[in-house]
Design brief:
Blueprint (H helix, E strand, L loop, with lengths): L1 H19 L1 H4 L7 H20 L7 H22 L3 H25 L7 H23 L4 H6 L1 H22 L1 H6 L3 E2 L2 E2 H27 L1
Antiparallel strand pairs: 1-2
Length: 216
Amino acid sequence: MYLLYIYLGCLILSALTATRFHRELKSRQLFLFVPYLWLISIQEIGLFIATNYGSLKTTGLFYNIYRPISTTVFVILFYRISINAPVRKLIAWLYSVYLSVTLVTFIFIQSITIYNSYLSLASGFVITCCGIFFLFNYFNLDNPTEERRWLPVILVTVGVITFYPIVNITLAFYKFLLAYDASIFGIPLYQLIPRIMSIFMYSCFTYAFYLCKKKN
């Protein structure tokens, strides 16, 4: 439970920091993180209250809606700051395929109220690919001024490309971890790992937002 509180604290701190430096975030294409992080904060706090003190039994609907929104935010971010046209086209193509599969799944194959781990894996894959594309472009800049300008986005990217692959591995082995009751200190690994990685990612976001102010 303490780990959950730390996670929620890091998430809210990240949202507060983004709000505090919202003007500086615009120059790095990070302004979308202000509404995005508040949306996640409200969702996570609401679900925590509803599942622990209310009658909510399943959170599948909320996370099935959250994943496409999250993917869209990061796709917009990396699309806007991509250096060359081919990378933009590749990002647009990946996003189009992901969004099409998501819509087809929830319209024709499965109810949106049932959590779909495969679409979560796909979301993490698309976001990670976009982050890697940005890193390749960044390390080819050969321009000290531009490198300093985009340093906060590097921190955001590091958080993202660390978080999603590790959490995706956890999702891929979810049934195995559940069947063997794999846990540490009584916390199931399929809950422990995403929370620890979330703390790391949102800490990266918070420092990145602070750097936007510092660099300006």
